[in-house]
Amino acid sequence: MFQGATDTAVALGLEPVGVVESWSEQPMYHYLRPYFQQVKYLGLETQPDLETIALLKPDLIIGERGRHQLIAPLLSRIAPTVIAEKLFDFKSLLKVIGEAAGRQSEAEQLLSCWQLRVADFRKKMATRAGLDWPQEVSVIRFRGPSARIYYSGFARSVLDELGFTRPASQRNPGWGINLTSQESIPAMDADAIFFFMVDSNPSVMETYRKWTQHPLWQQLKAAQTNQIFRVNAVTWNLGGGYIAANKLLDELYAHYSLKPQEPEESTKGCCQC
Predict the structure, then answer these.
(1) How far is Cα of residue 113 from the mean position of the Cα atoms in its chain?
(2) Which of 68, 137, 147, 167 lies 20 to 30 Å (CA to CA) from residue 156?
(3) How far apart are CA 122 and CA 163, in angstroms?
(4) Where in the chain is the domain with CATH 3.40.50.1980?
(5) What is the DSSP letter of 134?
(6) What whole-number distance in Å separates Cα of residue 214 and Cα of residue 155?
(7) What is the pLDDT of residues 99-125, one digit of tens each?
(8) Is the pLDDT of residue 74 over 70?
(9) Cα–Cα distance measured from residue 172 to residue 162, given in angstroms and rounded to the nearest whole number
(10) Which CATH superfamily includes the segment(s) 137-255?
(11) pLDDT at position 266, please?
């Protein structure tokens, strides 16, 4: 019933009979398509088609509190329903779905593999020549007439676990801040900036052009040291599951020219969904 659940189910070796449509790359994110032979689409996360869900006669329904708490009683009349507490907590979600679907051992193996990758990345970043570590980074999204700085969320949680830190001005509670004025550009500054956007939207592209050509953008420390990087919006923001987290980590290994550790025989393949 939400993107992170689709991702996580696939990571656990399940093939859902029905999924909600993706926010971009409709109707399903490209990175997930190879795992599906056929599937029924259930509408958007915020407006799922309950009639179609009932017709599928599922054994299990996975929803999320912020999206589906109000319709949970209806869903539970169709099939056993699990409501995840947080939209982008991919590790918690892995445990929840693993337990609900009888895939606890698979979930534990995936989590162990993730911890090995995290430890490997942190060790290699700490010894990387010419880089002050931990590195302060900002996560930015260009939207319509504005830009967002994320203080929390999927990408931010992964970056925090990998050892990156936030600038002092971004160590606040809440999801982040929406910037509507270019005069706020200095709030984005960090050692490095990772940004994403949907480039098929003309309004977004116009915002990106105006903001990145502004003198305040050119004065950012990250701009002056060529440490501003565009990243994949699906991987960094929309996927929200175990596979997306590993793809985000793959991007960081490549970005910092680090060689990932070869998985041990007991965990081989579990991190490369």
Answers:
(1) 18
(2) 68
(3) 6
(4) 3-102, 137-255
(5) S
(6) 26
(7) 999 999 999 999 999 999 999 999 999
(8) yes
(9) 19
(10) Nitrogenase molybdenum iron protein domain (3.40.50.1980)
(11) 41
Length of the chain: 273
- The confidence band for 204, taking pLDDT boundaries of 50, 70 and 90, is very high
Cβ–Cβ under 8 Å, residues 49 and 70: no
Structure tokens at 167: 């600038």
Structure-block tokens of residue 241: 């599951």
- In this predicted structure, the answer to whether residue 265 has a pLDDT above a threshold of 50 is no
Angle made by CA atoms 163, 164, 170, in degrees to the nearest 5: 135
Distance of CA 34 to the CA centre of its chain: 19
Examine the pLDDT at 273 and tell me if it is beyond 80. no
How do residues 6-28 score in pLDDT, each as one tens digit?
A: 999 999 999 999 999 999 999 99
Q: Cα 40 to the chain's mean position, in Å?
A: 23
Instruction: Dump strand ranges (E) for the chain.
Output: 18-19, 40-41, 43-44, 47-48, 61-64, 81-84, 137-143, 146-150, 176-179, 192-196, 228-230
User: Kind and range of the H or E element at 166?
Assistant: none
- One-letter amino acid at 45 equals E
- Amino acid 267: pLDDT: 47
Identify the three-state secondary structure at position 3. helix
Residue listed under structure tokens 């009349």: 77
Q: Which helix (H) or strand (E) holds 125?
A: helix 104-126
Decide: helix, strand or coil at residue 204: helix
163: left (phi over 0), alpha (psi -120 to 50) or beta: left
> Quick check: 241 and 3 in contact, CB under 8 A?
yes
* Averaged pLDDT, 64-87: 94
For the chain, the distance separating the N- and C-terminal CA atoms, rounded to the nearest angstrom, is 21
Phi–psi pair at 61, nearest 5 degrees:
-120, 130
The CATH code belonging to domain 3-102 is: 3.40.50.1980
